[in-house]
Amino acid sequence: MAEILERYKNLPYRVGVGIVVLNKENKIFVAKRIDNPKNFWQMPQGGVDEGEDFLSAAYRELEEETSIKKVELITEIDEITTYELPDYLLGKIWKGKFKGQKQKWFIMRYLGSDDEININTHKPEFLDWKWTDINSITQIVVKFKLDVYKTLQEKIKRIIN
Asked: Domains, the chain, ranges and CATH?
């Protein structure tokens, strides 16, 4: 195991975005990933393409993963959040090119109706989706993203309260 960690410790972080989608009741959109059979949920997120700015990437990723288009930007979170992959995922995710992800997060208000949300997209990433309470997001996320979600939870609470 030590040799695997040594091999991956100098890898860069993938540059990504994340989107907190709030409905009119201030519930948060979360979805269950296809590639994780356990009961973990996450907010939409993904990589930034070359030449793409963060906000454009956020809108693109949101539509690609959920079909959501009708949103208004509430705010951009100032700081960049970072997570590292656990040892057992190093070399398996992102074709082994990255050790984790640095993300720029955005908070958006969903203006559409639930029947417009479709996770059965061209390249589906999710099995299921739901709206959840702000207090539950840190209880349902995979452990290696927990610190990111705790940070987001505090930022979201300041906005919706």
From this structure: 2-160 (3.90.79.10)
